[in-house]
Amino acid sequence: MKWSFLPPEDGDRRYLAVNADEAEPGTFKDRMLIDFDPHILLEGIAICMHACRIDTAYIYIRGEYHAQAKTLQRAVDEAYEYNVFGKDSFLGKINSLAPHCYIHRGAGAYVCGEETALLESLEGKRGWPRIKPPFPAIAGAFARPTIINNVETIAMVGPIVQHGPDWFKSMGTQRPEDAPPTVPASFGPKLFGVSGHVNRPGVYEDELGIKLSTLIETHCGGMRNGKKFKAAIPGGIAMGILGTDQYDAVLDFDVGKKYNCLGLGTAGVIVMDQDTDMVAVTRNIIRFLAHESCGQCTPCREGTTWMYKTLSRIEAGDGTSKDLDLLLELAGSMGAMPGTTICGLADGANWAVRTILNKFRPDFEARVRKHRYVSLSTAGVR
Amino acid sequence: MAWIVKNSAAAQIDRRDQPYLDQDLKTHIETDVLPRYPTKRAALLPILHAVQHKHNWIPYQALEEVADFLDIAPAEVADTATFYEDFWLQPKGKYLIMICQSITCELMGQVNLLEKVKAKLGISVGQTTTDDRFTLMTAECLGSCDTAPVALVNESLHEKLTPENFDRILDSLS
Amino acid sequence: MPLKQPILTKRIPTPPWGDPADRKLVTLDHFLETGATTRYAKRSSSTPKPSSTSSKPASCVAEAAQGSPRA
Hints:
The structure holds three protein chains of three kinds. Chain A has helices at about 30-35, 40-50, 65-80, 115-120, 150-165, 165-170, 210-220, 255-260, 280-290, 300-315, 320-330, 345-360, 360-365, and strands spanning about 15-20, 55-60, 100-105, 145-150, 170-175, 185, 190-195, 200-205, 210, 230-235, 250, 270-275. By secondary structure, chain A is an alpha/beta fold. Chain A folds into three domains: about 1-165, Rossmann fold (3-Layer(aba) Sandwich), CATH 3.40.50.11540; about 190-275, Ubiquitin-like (UB roll); about 280-365, NADH-ubiquinone oxidoreductase 51kDa subunit, iron-sulphur binding domain (de novo design (two linked rop proteins), Up-down Bundle). In chain A, the strands form four sheets. Chain A has a four-stranded parallel β-sheet with strand order 3-2-1-4, sandwiched between helices. The longest helix of chain A is centred in the C-terminal third of the chain and has 18 residues, at about 300-315. The relative contact order of chain A is 0.11. Chain B is of the alpha+beta class. Chain B contains seven helices and four strands. In chain B, helix 3 (about 60-70) crosses helix 4. The radius of gyration of chain B is 18 Å and the shape is elongated. The two termini of chain B are about 30 Å apart. Chain C is built from three helices and no strands. The chains are: A alpha/beta, B alpha+beta, C mainly alpha. Chains in contact: A-B, A-C, B-C.
């Protein structure tokens, strides 16, 4: 857990930042929690503050969530009245200060969901991710130790405290005894937000390790209009894609290694049926990332824009077969994993393009002209 | 795009005598906003939200007043304000229509919806109608993919849109 | 292995346990009755004075501070 990284108490202030900047396309589980059960979140916050000796919690909610910010504010006011926070808090004085919980509204920047960018934004600066180290647990918000957790994580704290860790570990997929340490364990329940071409899109809670086919057929009532399954994005657009033959994929934290994509991410599953145009899907994903790139690192700022131009060209029918290799080359050169950017936004573009191109290459090849020679101007060089 | 900058060297700043950051706002900031943060600059986002809520947009003069009020450089305020897309540094219409264009909404028919709205209002994305009532924008994921396509009109979210029912929603706005 | 009962969505009707149409905002009282941890829930019974008098509304953050209108 992230909580164990905190340095020992030194009597000065520490912060908790709850990440409710839910902007990943396909993800809407946190909105549901805030909309209907905000107190489960506030309880988790109170426990976290007590356990980690944190005096001030900020809930960073995205600017577009107007109604949710109001709901949450009312719940916070209720909690103040119930003496969870405030000067008479039953948590007592923490770091010789009264515990407080504040809501901080973002203003429409996807990158602020990245933890260090969120802190920059909390400090009133532009949401530019910071170079780590120092990690936020050592020097985060206002250069003090800070814990950053997602809404779902914090909401899960209450039930775990109540029922104990063994109960939590009894759910999900167990790690095989002989598995190498790189295989992550996937414990607990998870909120799966399913959207796209299914009969009943929505948030479904189930154990990690559920099969994609079960999720679609049992929970969502099957594919819309009886169409066939073509592809699914396992967790937010930045996580790559599951192909047609991976309909039975087991959704847990090991999904990336098993099915050649990045990971489970936010578990916001986007399902696409047989008529989906994969070129348009890729173009949409890259448009989003190009639009939301903060512009700090050159490979991401230029790479996503260049990819978007190339993909638009392919979609319009003006692409050539060389463009596909160009896309792959661009993708392979950007991201925190190749080591060229600070945060993981470019990795999203990298994985999205690479996995879609690898798994649906015929879709792309049908759209491009097979030219052997490409002029510089067609390739985007001006 | 947060990182696109404009040539501002020759820009003229419109000014008026009456301050945008009036006493009401100042009192509100001092009592409600500033105590929440250990540094003054951290209060910038809530303050800009409050200014925008009052004036519908954030004039450059207001940025200077905020900078003065917080004892930081105007450039620092502008630095933050220009990064976030929710802050309008030019006037917008009475109703801001933001149609989600992210992947699920596109799969579920956002393109058609957007075309119909454009035709109805006679403007394209980023423009304001001549009577200053509607400003049309596209938005990135609004976090309601299960009810796609969706659009945000000012502060209310409209879900499961079709060109027909969105037409009725727009007509019902005064 | 499917989940036997909802955990995070205990109070939010979600299929297969409930109908999303029945969803409504969970108030603090309802939350305390149905699932708060013991210490959180016990708070109300062990408060010596009415909690409403000990917390000034002014010390709560104002909604308008967030740039959104009240109510």
